[in-house]
Amino acid sequence: MSVINHIIERGIPLPTSVRRSRGKWQVLSSKMQIGDSVLLGHADAKIFSTTLRKSNFQPFTRKENQDFTRVWKGQELAK
């Protein structure tokens, strides 16, 4: 069994703010209006649906064919 040695440090201040850049899915979502849709590969459609949900919008998806899924931006969800 191998033991990994880690250096524990104290007294390092936490960052005062964490700035997160907007990813491509957030940018796409912000450009869409309610009812707009986009055709994406299955994996990207799943990621984009999650982004919509985390942005408080209801995603709707339909498989178009074996390669693509359409994702609609639905109404804003109640908080």
Describe this structure in words.
The chain is of the alpha+beta class and 79 residues long. The protein has helices at 24-31, 42-54, and strands at residues 37-41, 57-63, 68-76. The chain has a domain at 24-76. The protein is built from 2 helices and 3 strands; from the N terminus they run αβαββ. A 3-stranded antiparallel sheet has the order 1-3-2, with helices on one face. The chain is elongated and about 50 Å long.
What distinguishing features does this structure have?
single chain, 79 residues, alpha+beta, 2 helices
Could you give a short description of this structure?
The protein has about 80 residues and is of the alpha+beta class. The chain contains two helices and three strands.
Distance between the termini: 49 Å
Beta content? 25-35%
Q: How confident is the prediction overall: mean pLDDT? A: 90
What's the total count of β strands? Answer: 3
What's the helix count? Answer: 2
User: Could you say which overall geometry the principal axes of the C-alpha atoms support?
Assistant: elongated
Give the C-alpha Rg: 19 Å
Order of helices and strands: HEHEE
Main beta sheet: strand number and arrangement? Answer: 3 strands, antiparallel
What class would the helix/strand composition place it in?
alpha+beta
The stretches of 5 or more residues where confidence is low (pLDDT under 50) are none
**Spatial order of strands in the largest sheet:** 1-3-2
Q: Level of helix content?
A: 25-40%
